[in-house]
Amino acid sequence: MRERDHDEQTPQFYIGPNTPSDPESLLDDARQRIRDEDSKNRESHKLARRLLIAFVLIVLLGVMFYLILPHYKLRLPPFVPILCFIAIAAGAILTLRE
């Protein structure tokens, strides 16, 4: 049997509507898809963390506004806590637009 030369390459055949001109473009496309998927996963984790922190802040403010402050005979109008809750929730969601 004849040994192959190291310079000789096996022929490659591409099947499909968008046949690439070189094999490197296939690798580049695959790498780009992986990078895009990783960035989407990171963004969803960041959003989940922001929403969790916002929920904890809303619960703590709710306890403060409705349990602790009335205990000390301090009453606030109802729109103050509601505006605080809305501001925290909107800030958590809108920071994704960075």
Question: Would you mind describing this structure in some detail?
Answer:
- It is built from 2 helices and no strands.
- The chain has 98 residues and is mainly α.
- The protein is rod-shaped and about 90 Å long.
- Helices cover 66% and strands 0% of the residues.
- The longest helix has 49 residues, at 23-71.
- It has one domain (23-97).
- The N and C termini lie far apart (63 Å).
The main β sheet shows up as: none
- Number of continuous helical runs: 2
Order of helices and strands: HH
In whole angstroms, the N-to-C terminal distance is 63 Å
List how many beta strands DSSP finds: 0
Oligomer: single chain
Average pLDDT figure: 76
Tally the structural domains: 1
Rg of Cα set? 29 Å
Helix content: 55-70%
Which regions are unreliable across 5 or more consecutive residues at pLDDT < 50? Answer: none
State the secondary-structure class: mainly alpha
